[in-house]
Amino acid sequence: MKANTGVKMIPLQGEAFGKPMVIYPTLLWDDDRAVLVDTGMPGSWETIRQEMLRAGIPPERLQAIILTHQDLDHIGSLPEIVRELGGQVEVYAHELDQPYIEGTRPLLKTNAQSMAPILAMLPEKEREHLQWLCENPPKAMVHKTLADTEILPYCGGIRIIHTPGHTPGHISLYVQDSKTLIAGDAMVYMNEALRGPIPQTTLDMEMAVNSLKKFENLEITSIICYHGGMCQNNVEEQLHALIR
Ligand SMILES: O=c1ccn([C@@H]2O[C@H](COP(=O)(O)O)[C@@H](O)[C@H]2O)c(=O)[nH]1
């Protein structure tokens, strides 16, 4: 029997890096399990938990967290979720971002040196907070690393697509049942238009643009961008216009 599967974005609103920001972790579920893709900034677990309850998915059903990459706004609430749910949750990420998420290497972007221009512009309280996060970044163990083309057996099958560029271990996810592409930061959705990676925060633009070719042969009905949310208008046309 086919499982009942679902996809729901969890909008998280707040202030980050000196500006207002809305970001979109995604909740996936089937009959008995739920999966969270990315965890928001530190302190977001309570909002995510409430949104899960509103969707009728008890947090105890959460069995996996998939991190699209190491950036602070994606891994921020990982420690608090793992602390609360403990051993029931398996954490997944690509091996190239694993050491940063586990804290054995400093985060590639959210460190005092890279953040210096932003830190200098912030009011004192926010500066102290971001400085503290740079020195004490969230970290947690990655239980399983993910490789390109692998299919995770949750929610009707989640295909892993390695899309390096924004970070070396950036992954996107293709949810087979609903034909939804969870693009992480490989693309953004702004003013009802799908756009490529943002140069300001992408470590290797050439690689990031090249990674978009991996979406070329997918049948896609919706794309969820972490920045901008869900794109459902002329999805394949918009996507093909970005692929060079
Ligand atoms: O203006 C900014 C915003 C963010 N950063 C750093 O880049 C990463 C990724 O940011 P995204 O907005 O998710 O692409 C973030 O964790 C910050 O460390 C930046 O340098 N400048």
List the helices and strands and how they pair.
Elements lengths: L5 E4 L2 E5 L2 E5 L2 E4 L4 E4 L7 H10 L7 E5 L5 H4 L2 H8 L4 E5 L3 H4 L14 H6 L2 H12 L8 E3 L4 E2 L5 E5 L8 E5 L4 E5 L3 E3 L2 E3 L9 H7 L10 E4 L3 E3 L3 H8 L2
The structure holds ligand LLZGTKA7.
**What fraction, in percent, of the residue positions are helical?**
10-25%
Percentage of residues in strands: 25-35%
What is the gyration radius calculated from CA atoms?
A: 17 Å
* CATH topology tier name: Metallo-beta-lactamase, Chain A
Which structural category do the helix and sheet elements fall into?
alpha/beta
As for the number of domains, it is: 1
User: Which second-level CATH architecture applies?
Assistant: 4-Layer Sandwich
Which ions and ligands are bound to the chains? ligand LLZGTKA7
CATH superfamily: Ribonuclease Z/Hydroxyacylglutathione hydrolase-like
Give the low-confidence spans: none
Average pLDDT figure: 97
Keywords: Hydrolase
Protein name: MBL fold metallo-hydrolase
Function: Counteracts the endogenous Pycsar antiviral defense system. Phosphodiesterase that enables metal-dependent hydrolysis of host cyclic nucleotide Pycsar defense signals such as cCMP and cUMP.
Catalytic activity: 3',5'-cyclic CMP + H2O = CMP + H(+); 3',5'-cyclic UMP + H2O = UMP + H(+)
Main traits of this protein?
6-stranded mixed β-sheet, 24% helix, Metallo-beta-lactamase, Chain A, alpha/beta, 244 residues, 16 strands
